[in-house]
Amino acid sequence: MNWDDVRIFLAVARAGQILGAARRLQLNHATVSRRVAALEEALRAKLFRRLTTGSELTPAGIRFLEIAERMEADMIAARSAVAGEGEEVSGTVRIGAPDGFGVAFLARRLGELTAQHRELTIQLVPVPLSFSLSRREADIAITVERPTEGRLVAGKLVDYTLGLFASRAYADQYGLPQSPADLPRHTLIGYVPDLIVSPSLDYAAEFSPEWRSSFAISSALGQAEAVRAGAGIGILHTFIARSMPELLPVDVVAPIRRAYWLVYHESVRPLRRVQAVADFIAGAVERERSLFA
User: Fold this and answer.
1) 144 and 267: one domain?
2) 168 plus 288 within the same structural domain
3) Domain tally for the chain?
4) Is the whole model's pTM more than 0.85, yes or no?
5) Total H helices, total E strands in the chain
6) pLDDT over threshold 90, residue 268
7) Which residues constitute the domain of residue 104?
8) Could you tell me where the DSSP H helices lie in the chain?
9) Which residues contact 65 (CB under 8 A, 6 or more apart)?
């Protein structure tokens, strides 16, 4: 069995189509098709169903995917071992993170890591929608729930809170609610319900069963900016709101608690660059844990 054929199989399985895999691998479409066919012949099994929308794994392909990912993990570990521990951390690591954590916390701190490792490139992708580590859309993900499926390594980073906030200008003009029952009478700023990536982020009803957003924004930072501009009362990350002196807490409802998790695929565990970035993020959060309290 040719490892290059296995590598191409993994790319097609993750892209869901031969054309997408060919682009990612920078190979000719016909070459990818030919190598997949060669692997199927070697295994004497059909690995993909060709559909008009792409390529779907067969039951045999699903079974082989697990084997191929273990082979990939062994290959990564072997390369890492041969490269040696004394070499400079180098290469590219892509981090997918919610914009609140990614932009408000990570973006201003990751420069310290690239200054330490000049051959390391960081790609920070603040994502409002979900993405796949198994398909290598990111090397490291910051999530708001611990994943329960897939060959993923997950560690809890920190708990954080969300609470109600308004600007001083809004409070001066409209006053602040004195009880939860007053909230529906105010202009409320919230999220776009059908764009949330996790049920745990659908939390408006925990603040008011009658919550109705007059202004909905899919970005946590966008919501904070709208509240800061005096557009209304919003549910904000406490660690973000604290950095905005124009904001006042609205204490009619207690803050709620959520958590951030650091996650990566098991196959990239041996990569020094991934471990260096994961360790840096965990260390930065630990040093500033009080920020999230």
Assistant:
1) yes
2) no
3) 3
4) no
5) 11, 11
6) no
7) 91-158+259-292
8) 3-15, 18-25, 29-43, 59-83, 99-101, 110-116, 168-174, 204-207, 220-228, 238-241, 272-287
9) 10, 13, 57
